[in-house]
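User: I'm new to structure prediction. If I give you an amino acid sequence, what do you actually give back? Let's try with this one:
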Amino acid sequence: MLECFEQRDAPGFKYSHLVLFPVHPSTAARYRQVFSPSGAKDDSRDAASLLDLLLHHRSQLRPWQPDTVETRQLQRLVEQRRLMVNEKTRQSNRFTACLKMYFPQILQWFDDVTAPVVGALLERWPSLQELQRAHPGTLKKFFVQHNGRSLQRIEQRIQAIYQAVPSTHDPAVLQGEAAAAQGFLALLKTLRETIAGLDQQIEQLVAGHPDRALFASLPGAGPVMVPRLIVAFGTRRQRYDTAFQMQCYSGIAPVKEASGNSEWVHFRQSCPKFLRQTFHEFAFVSTRSLGMGQGLL
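Assistant: Good question. You get back a string of structure tokens that encode the predicted 3D arrangement of the chain. For your 297 residues, that looks like this:
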């Protein structure tokens, strides 16, 4: 039995007797528009359009060939990890903007505002005025407890704390931004813990994956890139007859258009963005690992 569906990812493969043909949403919409140029649509008409596409153009469609359970589970984890990292970046930018309003010195004292030491410091001393009232010995003990290994840098940081001048004395700004900062700190802490948990699950899956050694041997492929490369190529690599097909699907290959005597090439927009990002990032780390980075700049 054949079944056609409009979805980027196939649903759970529950019935083995079904052969699924995924159709890109843009393809389904444009095919429907051929017979309904007015744009009218409903569920029954959409189903009929997909059925017509399957019956008359099956040779242009590829049946869905699911990867192994391990690979599909790894795919979900690495994609969710990327979403969490993007969210952490977004909240970090908002937190930075908040600090610029009432406590900009933090941005000078610490290279990474998402570091746990920054959260611990602001939870204990939410404002510059409270921080400056702390005893030097207390501050030194605090930084040592939070992995401060350079005593010279700790002393410089303590000295800078006592020499700092508040950016504002407006209580409305101080109280409002300090309250917002505590909220951002809670979000960043949760995101750090979530990413760490995902990393642990990914590491366990990669350790037992049959393709781990293959992709780990590639230049620049480390703990982050190996699982993403496993997911990118999948375990059913016979889905692609040539490397060019893989390049087109991932969005690496440019799009060539021609009309009359004109011909132009442009960036491929319609593709799995996370997959394309994987190859772009791997190209960057692999060239650096081979010592080619300077030659490319």
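You can read the tokens as a compact description of the fold. Here is one thing that stands out. The longest helix spans residues 171-207.
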